[in-house]
Write a structure and sequence with these properties.
Length: 481
Amino acid sequence: MVRTRFAPSPTGALHLGNARTAALNWLFARHTGGTFILRFEDTDVQREVEGAEERILEALDWLGLDRDEGPEVGGPSGPYRQSERLELYRAHAERLLAEGQAYHCYCTPEELEARRSRARAAKGELRYDGRCRRRPKSEVDRLVAEGVRPSVRFRVDPGTVRYVDRVRGELTVNGEELGDQVILRSDGRPTYNFAVVVDDLLMEITHVIRGAGHLSNTPKQVLFFAALGAEPPEYLHLPSVLAPGGGKLSKRAGAPAVLEYRELGYHPDGLLNYLSLLSWSSPRGEEVLSRGQLIEEVDLDRIGKANPEIDPDKLRWLSGQHFRRESTERLAAALSLRLGYRFDVDEAQLRRLAEVLRDRILILADADPICALVLPEPSLSVPGARDALADPTAGRVLRGVADRWRDLDRWTRDDLKTALVAVGKEEDFAGRRLYHPVRVALTGAVQGPDVPDLAYILGPVRTLERLLAGAAIAAGLAEGA
Ligand code: GLU
Protein backbone atom coordinates (compact mmCIF):
# COMPACT_ATOMS: atom_id res chain seq x y z
CA MET A 1 0.00 0.00 0.00
CA VAL A 2 1.50 3.33 -1.05
CA ARG A 3 2.10 5.87 1.73
CA THR A 4 3.47 9.29 0.78
CA ARG A 5 4.13 12.29 2.93
CA PHE A 6 4.57 16.02 2.59
CA ALA A 7 6.89 17.26 5.32
CA PRO A 8 7.18 21.04 5.35
CA SER A 9 8.96 23.04 8.00
CA PRO A 10 6.60 25.71 9.32
CA THR A 11 9.04 28.49 8.55
CA GLY A 12 6.90 30.57 6.22
CA ALA A 13 4.33 30.52 3.46
CA LEU A 14 3.83 27.63 1.07
CA HIS A 15 5.63 28.55 -2.14
CA LEU A 16 5.28 27.06 -5.59
CA GLY A 17 8.26 24.72 -5.25
CA ASN A 18 6.96 23.13 -2.07
CA ALA A 19 3.39 23.18 -3.34
CA ARG A 20 4.55 21.19 -6.35
CA THR A 21 6.11 18.62 -3.99
CA ALA A 22 2.87 18.42 -2.00
CA ALA A 23 0.81 18.12 -5.18
CA LEU A 24 2.86 15.26 -6.53
CA ASN A 25 2.77 13.30 -3.28
CA TRP A 26 -0.98 13.80 -3.10
CA LEU A 27 -1.62 12.91 -6.75
CA PHE A 28 0.49 9.77 -6.50
CA ALA A 29 -1.28 8.68 -3.29
CA ARG A 30 -4.70 9.29 -4.87
CA HIS A 31 -3.63 7.56 -8.12
CA THR A 32 -2.64 4.41 -6.25
CA GLY A 33 -5.43 4.47 -3.68
CA GLY A 34 -2.72 5.03 -1.07
CA THR A 35 -2.39 7.33 1.93
CA PHE A 36 -1.23 10.94 1.93
CA ILE A 37 0.33 12.14 5.17
CA LEU A 38 1.22 15.62 6.37
CA ARG A 39 4.05 16.00 8.85
CA PHE A 40 5.35 19.24 10.27
CA GLU A 41 9.11 19.28 10.67
CA ASP A 42 9.26 21.82 13.42
CA THR A 43 12.32 20.96 15.47
CA ASP A 44 14.21 24.05 14.40
CA VAL A 45 12.54 26.40 16.85
CA GLN A 46 14.62 29.37 15.76
CA ARG A 47 13.40 29.26 12.19
CA GLU A 48 9.79 28.74 13.07
CA VAL A 49 7.31 31.43 12.13
CA GLU A 50 4.16 32.16 14.10
CA GLY A 51 1.05 31.16 12.16
CA ALA A 52 3.01 29.34 9.44
CA GLU A 53 1.33 25.98 10.14
CA GLU A 54 -2.11 27.49 9.73
CA ARG A 55 -1.14 29.17 6.50
CA ILE A 56 0.32 25.96 5.08
CA LEU A 57 -2.89 24.10 5.97
CA GLU A 58 -4.97 26.85 4.40
CA ALA A 59 -2.92 26.70 1.21
CA LEU A 60 -3.21 22.90 1.01
CA ASP A 61 -6.96 23.14 1.60
CA TRP A 62 -7.36 25.73 -1.10
CA LEU A 63 -5.46 23.51 -3.55
CA GLY A 64 -7.73 20.65 -2.50
CA LEU A 65 -4.87 18.47 -1.18
CA ASP A 66 -6.69 16.68 1.60
CA ARG A 67 -4.81 14.64 4.16
CA ASP A 68 -5.48 11.07 5.28
CA GLU A 69 -3.19 11.47 8.27
CA GLY A 70 -1.72 14.61 9.74
CA PRO A 71 -1.64 17.04 12.65
CA GLU A 72 -5.27 18.14 12.29
CA VAL A 73 -6.82 14.82 11.18
CA GLY A 74 -4.75 12.49 13.39
CA GLY A 75 -3.99 8.91 12.38
CA PRO A 76 -2.38 5.69 13.55
CA SER A 77 1.25 6.82 13.25
CA GLY A 78 1.01 10.19 14.99
CA PRO A 79 1.86 12.57 16.45
CA TYR A 80 2.52 14.33 13.17
CA ARG A 81 4.62 17.18 14.50
CA GLN A 82 8.29 16.41 15.05
CA SER A 83 8.39 18.53 18.19
CA GLU A 84 5.96 16.01 19.70
CA ARG A 85 8.07 13.00 18.73
CA LEU A 86 11.30 13.80 20.56
CA GLU A 87 10.98 10.68 22.72
CA LEU A 88 10.90 8.48 19.61
CA TYR A 89 14.10 10.01 18.24
CA ARG A 90 15.80 9.61 21.59
CA ALA A 91 14.76 5.95 21.85
CA HIS A 92 16.09 5.17 18.37
CA ALA A 93 19.35 6.98 19.09
CA GLU A 94 19.68 4.98 22.32
CA ARG A 95 19.23 1.82 20.36
CA LEU A 96 22.02 2.74 17.94
CA LEU A 97 24.23 3.68 20.92
CA ALA A 98 23.54 0.34 22.59
CA GLU A 99 24.38 -1.51 19.39
CA GLY A 100 27.63 0.40 18.97
CA GLN A 101 26.43 2.04 15.74
CA ALA A 102 26.61 5.43 17.39
CA TYR A 103 28.70 7.02 20.13
CA HIS A 104 28.61 9.98 22.47
CA CYS A 105 30.40 13.01 21.16
CA TYR A 106 31.66 15.58 23.66
CA CYS A 107 32.96 18.07 21.13
CA THR A 108 31.01 21.26 21.70
CA PRO A 109 29.52 23.25 18.80
CA GLU A 110 32.07 26.02 19.50
CA GLU A 111 35.00 23.61 19.28
CA LEU A 112 33.64 22.08 16.11
CA GLU A 113 33.16 25.47 14.51
CA ALA A 114 36.68 26.57 15.51
CA ARG A 115 38.13 23.40 13.96
CA ARG A 116 36.10 23.88 10.82
CA SER A 117 37.21 27.46 10.32
CA ARG A 118 40.84 26.45 10.81
CA ALA A 119 40.33 23.73 8.24
CA ARG A 120 38.67 26.18 5.86
CA ALA A 121 41.59 28.57 6.18
CA ALA A 122 44.04 25.77 5.46
CA LYS A 123 41.77 24.43 2.71
CA GLY A 124 41.70 21.21 4.69
CA GLU A 125 39.14 18.62 5.64
CA LEU A 126 35.82 19.98 6.98
CA ARG A 127 34.41 16.63 8.06
CA TYR A 128 34.34 15.53 11.67
CA ASP A 129 37.68 14.00 12.56
CA GLY A 130 36.28 11.15 14.63
CA ARG A 131 37.93 12.42 17.79
CA CYS A 132 35.26 11.10 20.16
CA ARG A 133 35.40 7.64 18.61
CA ARG A 134 38.78 7.38 20.30
CA ARG A 135 38.49 9.67 23.31
CA PRO A 136 40.10 8.03 26.36
CA LYS A 137 37.76 7.15 29.21
CA SER A 138 39.61 9.44 31.64
CA GLU A 139 38.95 12.42 29.39
CA VAL A 140 35.30 11.48 28.98
CA ASP A 141 34.94 11.23 32.76
CA ARG A 142 36.46 14.66 33.17
CA LEU A 143 34.15 16.22 30.56
CA VAL A 144 31.12 14.58 32.16
CA ALA A 145 32.24 15.90 35.57
CA GLU A 146 32.53 19.36 34.01
CA GLY A 147 28.90 19.05 32.96
CA VAL A 148 29.48 18.80 29.20
CA ARG A 149 26.44 17.16 27.65
CA PRO A 150 27.23 14.93 24.72
CA SER A 151 25.54 14.70 21.38
CA VAL A 152 25.01 11.32 19.75
CA ARG A 153 27.05 10.68 16.64
CA PHE A 154 26.46 7.95 14.09
CA ARG A 155 29.44 5.96 12.77
CA VAL A 156 29.90 6.17 9.02
CA ASP A 157 32.55 3.72 7.97
CA PRO A 158 34.59 4.09 4.79
CA GLY A 159 33.21 2.24 1.83
CA THR A 160 30.71 2.80 -0.92
CA VAL A 161 27.21 3.91 0.04
CA ARG A 162 24.69 3.09 -2.67
CA TYR A 163 21.33 4.73 -2.99
CA VAL A 164 18.74 4.94 -5.70
CA ASP A 165 16.82 7.92 -6.96
CA ARG A 166 13.94 7.13 -9.29
CA VAL A 167 14.84 9.95 -11.67
CA ARG A 168 18.62 9.60 -11.64
CA GLY A 169 19.08 5.88 -11.07
CA GLU A 170 21.73 4.39 -8.79
CA LEU A 171 24.12 6.85 -7.17
CA THR A 172 27.08 6.28 -4.89
CA VAL A 173 29.14 8.20 -2.41
CA ASN A 174 32.04 7.13 -0.26
CA GLY A 175 31.33 6.89 3.45
CA GLU A 176 34.56 8.74 4.12
CA GLU A 177 33.22 11.79 2.35
CA LEU A 178 30.23 11.88 4.65
CA GLY A 179 31.99 11.54 8.00
CA ASP A 180 30.33 10.56 11.27
CA GLN A 181 26.93 12.23 11.61
CA VAL A 182 25.33 13.84 14.65
CA ILE A 183 21.88 12.31 15.06
CA LEU A 184 20.89 13.78 18.43
CA ARG A 185 22.10 17.18 19.60
CA SER A 186 23.29 17.67 23.16
CA ASP A 187 19.95 19.31 24.02
CA GLY A 188 18.12 16.16 22.93
CA ARG A 189 16.81 17.49 19.64
CA PRO A 190 17.33 15.24 16.62
CA THR A 191 19.13 16.43 13.53
CA TYR A 192 17.08 16.78 10.39
CA ASN A 193 18.31 13.61 8.66
CA PHE A 194 17.76 11.40 11.67
CA ALA A 195 14.29 12.69 12.50
CA VAL A 196 13.21 12.20 8.89
CA VAL A 197 14.40 8.59 8.91
CA VAL A 198 12.77 7.70 12.23
CA ASP A 199 9.54 9.27 10.99
CA ASP A 200 9.62 7.75 7.51
CA LEU A 201 10.32 4.37 9.14
CA LEU A 202 7.61 4.55 11.80
CA MET A 203 5.08 6.12 9.44
CA GLU A 204 5.83 3.31 6.97
CA ILE A 205 6.41 5.73 4.12
CA THR A 206 6.84 3.83 0.85
CA HIS A 207 7.72 6.73 -1.47
CA VAL A 208 9.64 9.88 -0.58
CA ILE A 209 8.98 12.50 -3.23
CA ARG A 210 10.80 15.75 -2.45
CA GLY A 211 12.93 18.53 -3.88
CA ALA A 212 16.31 17.87 -5.46
CA GLY A 213 17.91 19.87 -2.66
CA HIS A 214 17.54 16.79 -0.49
CA LEU A 215 19.45 14.47 -2.83
CA SER A 216 22.69 14.92 -0.89
CA ASN A 217 20.90 13.92 2.35
CA THR A 218 19.73 10.65 0.90
CA PRO A 219 22.90 8.54 1.39
CA LYS A 220 22.95 9.49 5.07
CA GLN A 221 19.30 8.58 5.40
CA VAL A 222 19.89 5.27 3.64
CA LEU A 223 22.66 4.46 6.13
CA PHE A 224 20.35 5.22 9.07
CA PHE A 225 17.69 2.94 7.63
CA ALA A 226 20.23 0.13 7.29
CA ALA A 227 21.43 0.66 10.85
CA LEU A 228 17.84 0.46 12.08
CA GLY A 229 17.46 -2.79 10.17
CA ALA A 230 14.96 -1.49 7.63
CA GLU A 231 14.69 -1.05 3.88
CA PRO A 232 14.60 2.61 2.81
CA PRO A 233 11.56 3.90 0.95
CA GLU A 234 11.77 4.65 -2.74
CA TYR A 235 13.28 8.11 -3.28
CA LEU A 236 12.32 10.50 -6.03
CA HIS A 237 13.90 13.94 -6.14
CA LEU A 238 12.05 16.51 -8.17
CA PRO A 239 14.05 18.96 -10.27
CA SER A 240 14.10 22.49 -8.87
CA VAL A 241 11.45 24.94 -9.97
CA LEU A 242 13.09 28.12 -11.27
CA ALA A 243 11.86 31.68 -11.52
CA PRO A 244 10.80 33.03 -14.93
CA GLY A 245 13.97 33.37 -16.97
CA GLY A 246 15.89 31.02 -14.63
CA GLY A 247 17.28 31.77 -11.20
CA LYS A 248 15.93 31.19 -7.74
CA LEU A 249 12.21 31.26 -7.17
CA SER A 250 10.97 34.23 -5.16
CA LYS A 251 8.07 36.61 -5.03
CA ARG A 252 10.17 39.36 -6.58
CA ALA A 253 11.10 37.03 -9.40
CA GLY A 254 7.43 36.54 -10.28
CA ALA A 255 6.40 33.65 -8.05
CA PRO A 256 4.16 34.61 -5.14
CA ALA A 257 3.13 32.16 -2.42
CA VAL A 258 0.14 29.89 -2.95
CA LEU A 259 -2.23 31.98 -0.80
CA GLU A 260 -1.37 35.05 -2.83
CA TYR A 261 -2.59 33.23 -5.92
CA ARG A 262 -5.82 32.65 -4.02
CA GLU A 263 -6.12 36.39 -3.27
CA LEU A 264 -5.65 37.17 -6.94
CA GLY A 265 -8.39 34.70 -7.76
CA TYR A 266 -6.55 31.98 -9.64
CA HIS A 267 -8.55 28.83 -10.12
CA PRO A 268 -7.09 26.31 -7.64
CA ASP A 269 -7.46 23.47 -10.15
CA GLY A 270 -5.59 25.63 -12.64
CA LEU A 271 -2.70 26.01 -10.21
CA LEU A 272 -2.74 22.28 -9.41
CA ASN A 273 -2.77 21.54 -13.13
CA TYR A 274 0.12 23.94 -13.64
CA LEU A 275 2.19 22.45 -10.82
CA SER A 276 1.68 19.05 -12.41
CA LEU A 277 2.80 20.26 -15.82
CA LEU A 278 5.99 21.47 -14.16
CA SER A 279 6.78 17.87 -13.26
CA TRP A 280 5.31 15.61 -15.92
CA SER A 281 3.00 15.79 -18.89
CA SER A 282 0.13 13.76 -20.22
CA PRO A 283 1.18 11.25 -22.87
CA ARG A 284 -1.84 12.46 -24.85
CA GLY A 285 -0.25 15.91 -25.09
CA GLU A 286 -3.32 17.38 -23.39
CA GLU A 287 -2.48 20.37 -21.19
CA VAL A 288 -5.74 21.25 -19.53
CA LEU A 289 -6.39 18.42 -17.10
CA SER A 290 -9.10 18.24 -14.48
CA ARG A 291 -8.35 17.09 -10.95
CA GLY A 292 -9.67 13.62 -11.86
CA GLN A 293 -7.57 13.44 -15.01
CA LEU A 294 -4.46 14.51 -13.09
CA ILE A 295 -5.04 11.72 -10.58
CA GLU A 296 -5.62 9.21 -13.33
CA GLU A 297 -2.68 10.20 -15.50
CA VAL A 298 0.05 11.10 -13.00
CA ASP A 299 3.11 9.02 -13.83
CA LEU A 300 6.32 9.16 -11.80
CA ASP A 301 8.21 7.61 -14.72
CA ARG A 302 7.52 10.71 -16.79
CA ILE A 303 9.36 13.03 -14.40
CA GLY A 304 12.50 14.37 -16.06
CA LYS A 305 15.74 15.88 -14.82
CA ALA A 306 15.45 19.34 -16.36
CA ASN A 307 14.64 22.23 -14.01
CA PRO A 308 11.35 23.81 -15.11
CA GLU A 309 10.89 27.59 -15.16
CA ILE A 310 7.71 29.25 -14.00
CA ASP A 311 5.77 30.78 -16.88
CA PRO A 312 3.27 33.25 -15.35
CA ASP A 313 1.32 33.66 -18.61
CA LYS A 314 0.84 29.94 -18.96
CA LEU A 315 -0.35 29.72 -15.36
CA ARG A 316 -2.90 32.50 -15.92
CA TRP A 317 -4.06 30.89 -19.13
CA LEU A 318 -4.55 27.54 -17.40
CA SER A 319 -6.50 29.22 -14.62
CA GLY A 320 -8.79 30.68 -17.31
CA GLN A 321 -9.22 27.28 -18.94
CA HIS A 322 -10.45 25.88 -15.64
CA PHE A 323 -12.91 28.77 -15.23
CA ARG A 324 -14.29 27.99 -18.72
CA ARG A 325 -15.14 24.51 -17.48
CA GLU A 326 -16.57 25.67 -14.17
CA SER A 327 -20.24 25.22 -13.31
CA THR A 328 -22.33 28.36 -12.95
CA GLU A 329 -23.06 27.50 -9.30
CA ARG A 330 -19.43 27.16 -8.33
CA LEU A 331 -18.29 30.23 -10.20
CA ALA A 332 -21.16 32.24 -8.69
CA ALA A 333 -20.09 31.07 -5.23
CA ALA A 334 -16.48 32.08 -5.91
CA LEU A 335 -17.60 35.50 -7.17
CA SER A 336 -19.83 35.95 -4.16
CA LEU A 337 -16.89 35.29 -1.83
CA ARG A 338 -14.75 37.70 -3.74
CA LEU A 339 -17.37 40.45 -3.82
CA GLY A 340 -18.15 40.04 -0.15
CA TYR A 341 -20.56 42.73 0.96
CA ARG A 342 -19.16 45.38 -1.33
CA PHE A 343 -22.16 45.28 -3.65
CA ASP A 344 -25.80 44.59 -3.27
CA VAL A 345 -26.23 41.49 -5.48
CA ASP A 346 -28.71 38.66 -5.28
CA GLU A 347 -28.29 34.98 -6.16
CA ALA A 348 -29.84 35.30 -9.60
CA GLN A 349 -27.56 38.19 -10.45
CA LEU A 350 -24.53 36.28 -9.28
CA ARG A 351 -25.44 33.38 -11.54
CA ARG A 352 -25.87 35.65 -14.53
CA LEU A 353 -22.61 37.39 -13.70
CA ALA A 354 -20.93 33.97 -13.61
CA GLU A 355 -22.37 33.05 -17.01
CA VAL A 356 -21.10 36.25 -18.62
CA LEU A 357 -17.70 36.20 -16.94
CA ARG A 358 -16.94 32.51 -17.38
CA ASP A 359 -15.52 33.02 -20.87
CA ARG A 360 -13.85 36.35 -20.18
CA ILE A 361 -11.72 35.93 -17.09
CA LEU A 362 -8.40 34.19 -16.51
CA ILE A 363 -8.40 34.95 -12.80
CA LEU A 364 -11.17 36.29 -10.57
CA ALA A 365 -9.39 39.65 -10.30
CA ASP A 366 -10.30 40.14 -13.96
CA ALA A 367 -13.92 40.28 -12.81
CA ASP A 368 -13.27 43.20 -10.44
CA PRO A 369 -13.49 46.06 -12.97
CA ILE A 370 -16.59 44.57 -14.60
CA CYS A 371 -18.32 44.14 -11.24
CA ALA A 372 -17.33 47.64 -10.19
CA LEU A 373 -18.83 48.93 -13.43
CA VAL A 374 -22.10 47.03 -13.43
CA LEU A 375 -23.11 46.43 -9.84
CA PRO A 376 -23.20 49.88 -8.16
CA GLU A 377 -25.92 52.40 -9.01
CA PRO A 378 -24.59 54.36 -11.99
CA SER A 379 -23.65 57.95 -11.51
CA LEU A 380 -25.22 59.81 -14.41
CA SER A 381 -23.78 63.16 -13.47
CA VAL A 382 -20.29 62.53 -14.84
CA PRO A 383 -19.60 64.61 -18.00
CA GLY A 384 -19.37 61.66 -20.44
CA ALA A 385 -22.71 60.33 -19.22
CA ARG A 386 -24.42 63.71 -19.46
CA ASP A 387 -23.18 64.20 -23.02
CA ALA A 388 -24.56 60.84 -24.09
CA LEU A 389 -27.92 61.51 -22.47
CA ALA A 390 -28.05 65.06 -23.88
CA ASP A 391 -28.25 63.64 -27.40
CA PRO A 392 -31.71 64.71 -28.68
CA THR A 393 -32.69 61.12 -29.48
CA ALA A 394 -31.43 59.58 -26.21
CA GLY A 395 -34.78 59.70 -24.44
CA ARG A 396 -36.58 57.95 -27.28
CA VAL A 397 -33.89 55.32 -27.55
CA LEU A 398 -34.06 54.52 -23.85
CA ARG A 399 -37.84 54.35 -23.74
CA GLY A 400 -37.93 52.26 -26.93
CA VAL A 401 -35.40 49.77 -25.57
CA ALA A 402 -37.16 49.64 -22.21
CA ASP A 403 -40.49 48.85 -23.93
CA ARG A 404 -38.98 46.07 -26.00
CA TRP A 405 -37.06 44.50 -23.20
CA ARG A 406 -40.05 44.69 -20.85
CA ASP A 407 -41.98 42.50 -23.30
CA LEU A 408 -39.33 39.78 -23.52
CA ASP A 409 -40.46 36.30 -22.54
CA ARG A 410 -36.96 35.18 -21.71
CA TRP A 411 -34.13 37.30 -20.30
CA THR A 412 -31.33 35.79 -22.35
CA ARG A 413 -28.36 37.48 -23.93
CA ASP A 414 -29.52 36.47 -27.41
CA ASP A 415 -33.06 37.75 -26.92
CA LEU A 416 -31.80 41.00 -25.41
CA LYS A 417 -29.57 41.51 -28.41
CA THR A 418 -32.24 40.70 -30.99
CA ALA A 419 -34.65 43.12 -29.32
CA LEU A 420 -32.01 45.84 -29.22
CA VAL A 421 -31.27 45.48 -32.92
CA ALA A 422 -35.00 45.55 -33.66
CA VAL A 423 -35.43 48.86 -31.81
CA GLY A 424 -32.53 50.27 -33.80
CA LYS A 425 -34.16 49.22 -37.08
CA GLU A 426 -37.60 50.46 -36.16
CA GLU A 427 -36.52 53.85 -35.01
CA ASP A 428 -33.68 54.10 -37.48
CA PHE A 429 -31.03 54.45 -34.81
CA ALA A 430 -27.77 52.74 -35.37
CA GLY A 431 -24.34 52.39 -33.80
CA ARG A 432 -23.48 54.94 -31.15
CA ARG A 433 -26.89 56.62 -31.19
CA LEU A 434 -28.42 53.34 -30.08
CA TYR A 435 -25.76 51.78 -27.85
CA HIS A 436 -24.31 54.83 -26.20
CA PRO A 437 -27.31 56.08 -24.22
CA VAL A 438 -28.24 52.53 -23.19
CA ARG A 439 -24.75 51.75 -21.98
CA VAL A 440 -24.54 55.03 -20.11
CA ALA A 441 -27.97 54.61 -18.50
CA LEU A 442 -27.00 51.11 -17.30
CA THR A 443 -23.50 51.88 -16.00
CA GLY A 444 -22.78 55.60 -16.13
CA ALA A 445 -19.75 54.79 -18.29
CA VAL A 446 -19.15 55.09 -21.99
CA GLN A 447 -17.15 51.87 -22.28
CA GLY A 448 -17.43 48.31 -21.04
CA PRO A 449 -18.76 44.89 -21.97
CA ASP A 450 -21.44 44.43 -24.65
CA VAL A 451 -24.73 46.13 -23.86
CA PRO A 452 -26.81 42.90 -23.87
CA ASP A 453 -24.31 41.38 -21.41
CA LEU A 454 -24.70 44.36 -19.11
CA ALA A 455 -28.49 44.11 -19.16
CA TYR A 456 -28.34 40.35 -18.74
CA ILE A 457 -26.21 40.66 -15.58
CA LEU A 458 -28.43 43.38 -14.10
CA GLY A 459 -31.65 41.46 -14.70
CA PRO A 460 -35.01 42.88 -15.79
CA VAL A 461 -35.90 44.92 -12.71
CA ARG A 462 -32.67 46.84 -12.39
CA THR A 463 -32.25 47.22 -16.12
CA LEU A 464 -35.69 48.79 -16.58
CA GLU A 465 -35.23 51.03 -13.55
CA ARG A 466 -31.95 52.32 -14.92
CA LEU A 467 -33.23 52.81 -18.46
CA LEU A 468 -36.19 54.85 -17.21
CA ALA A 469 -34.02 56.88 -14.83
CA GLY A 470 -31.75 57.61 -17.80
CA ALA A 471 -34.76 58.54 -19.95
CA ALA A 472 -35.96 60.99 -17.27
CA ILE A 473 -32.56 62.68 -17.16
CA ALA A 474 -32.47 62.80 -20.95
CA ALA A 475 -35.88 64.47 -20.97
CA GLY A 476 -34.72 67.03 -18.41
CA LEU A 477 -31.65 67.81 -20.45
CA ALA A 478 -33.70 68.16 -23.64
CA GLU A 479 -36.08 70.62 -21.92
CA GLY A 480 -33.21 72.66 -20.53
CA ALA A 481 -31.56 72.84 -23.95
N1 GLU B 1 11.30 19.46 5.97
C1 GLU B 1 11.95 19.33 4.72
C2 GLU B 1 11.74 20.59 3.91
O1 GLU B 1 10.86 21.38 4.21
C3 GLU B 1 11.44 18.15 3.91
C4 GLU B 1 12.10 16.90 4.29
C5 GLU B 1 11.81 15.74 3.39
O2 GLU B 1 10.90 15.81 2.54
O3 GLU B 1 12.46 14.73 3.55
O4 GLU B 1 12.45 20.80 2.95
